[in-house]
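Technical note accompanying the year-one report. For the benefit of new consortium partners, we illustrate the data format agreed upon in the data management plan: each record pairs a sequence with a structure-token string. No post-processing was applied to the example shown here.
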Amino acid sequence: QGVQFQSKGDPVLYLSNPQGISHENRGKMIERISELNRLRHLQVGDPEIEARIDAFQLAYRMQASVPDLMDISRESPATLEAYGAKPGGGSFANNCLLARRLAEAGVRFIQLYDRGWDHHDNITKNIPGKINTVDKASAALIRDLKQRGMLDETLVIWGGEFGRTAYAQTRSKAFGRDHHPRCFSIWMAGGGIKGGIVHGETDDFSYNVARDKVHVHDLQATILHLLGIDHEHLTFRFKGRDFRLTDVHGKVVHQVLA
């Protein structure tokens, strides 16, 4: 189960104890609750009770570890400058730096969001700032992971839900780009990916894929392969039948593998 972090206030909702409750007392409360849950588990054998015990204990440990982990002011001025990060704020640069800190701490899956890309108009005004911010922070993350010897074991995936048209959406000077699901790009780094290559090609109008088409199912199959999972054999049961993570589709794109 994922945990959502916030840019302001407590990094995680309800991370701080209520007034009058010390960290020591909170620990004792969690242990008493766990004892009651263990007794109930002995009676009914429900695995969800074990999951609940683990969730309470994880939350308690996070109260001690998360505040320090999320404090990027501990980073050197050179590192903050490389990312374009500013302690105390909420930005894509800060999130990239936090992603590296989370990975160092052993977090196995980290997802970053960056809003403000839906440029149906005023694209020439709005997109330069977005590009500069994202390029700087993304490049810093890759360099940082490599310098720390983490990149080979960390798969970085950067993409969106669809592409944008290569042609203008309106005839006005404040033109933009419309949604375009037929073709778009995603870049990957580290974790077994071959660096410095481009796989796939569009037609002259960037409207359709002309060569080496990769479906989203193929992308998912490739990601799973890099994680050591065979997408054709791993299944999960839902509503009485087994499903594959890529349905009945998907093939590994070996051309992008190192």
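Partners are asked to follow this layout when depositing records. Residues 1-70 form one domain.
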